[in-house]
Amino acid sequence: MPMNEKTFYAIILAIVVVGGIGIGIAYEHPASVSSGSSATPGPYHLTLAVFPHLVYNATQTNEPAFFVISNGTLQSSVNITVPSHVLIDLTIIDYDSGPGTGTPSSYLNVTGTVGNVVYLTNRTLATGGTTAVGTQNITVLGNTTMKISTMSINDIAHTFTVGGLDGIGQDLNIPVGHGVEFTQFYANNTGKYMWMCHVPCGPAAMSTMGWMMGNFYVS
Ligand SMILES: [Cu+2]
């Protein structure tokens, strides 16, 4: 999908607004790290955003990347740190769309989250033709939430996957589609992990830290 400059700035504005809401929630529920097994403060809020159509270099000009939204600003996803033994509220805002042709079938399923589900919210539907302009032909489905445990190849754009996060070989695997997703999980084994996307979404992005892979620390 081509994106003009106006659209890009609209997206940036949306991120700042959504990020701002996230901060409000974060202040309401301050996150802290539990050192014992009895105290369970939290939740800890982690917000990620996926942008398509980024310029990687002179020849790779259409690559997607994950970012962290922190304090209303866009940050690199090279290093993501979460506390252990605290419920983690994860929101992923994805501006990219599928299909995720070639995604291994096991990565279409949600694993490692509470209930092995994610919630899709804030969806939009273009009702007038294939191109939605302004608000006239857009139906905003923001008040509908869909609980899913798997995503189709057609819908999946990326995955946010942390290999072996549970300490006994099970991945945290979150299929990511166009829209906003919310899920919750625990990371109870401290250490260094890798996060990565398992959808064949861009040759440069998939092999570069801070694009479709990075470090994931449980502190
Ligand atoms: Cu990807």
Briefly note the structural class of the backbone: mainly beta
- Domains counted in the coordinates: how many? 1
**How can the largest sheet be summarized?**
7 strands, mixed
CATH superfamily: Cupredoxins -  blue copper proteins
**In CATH's first tier, which class applies?**
Mainly Beta
Small molecules bound in the structure, each named once: copper (II) ion
What would you note in describing this structure?
The protein is mainly β. The chain has a single domain, classed as Cupredoxins -  blue copper proteins (Immunoglobulin-like, Sandwich), CATH 2.60.40. It has 1 helix and 14 strands; from the N terminus they run αββββββββββββββ. The protein has one helix spanning 5-28; strands at residues 44-54, 63-70, 73-76, 79-82, 88-94, 118-121, 123-126, 138-141, 146-148, 156-162, 172-177, 179-185, 191-196, 213-218. The strands form 3 sheets. The chain has a 7-stranded mixed beta sheet, with helices on one face. A 5-stranded mixed beta sheet has the order 4-14-13-10-11, with no helix packed on it. Strand 1 and strand 2 (63-70) form a beta hairpin. The longest helix has 24 residues, at 5-28. Mean pLDDT is 82; it is low at 11-38 and 128-133. Bound molecules: copper (II) ion. Residues 64, 158, 197, 199, 201, 212 line the site of copper (II) ion (CU).
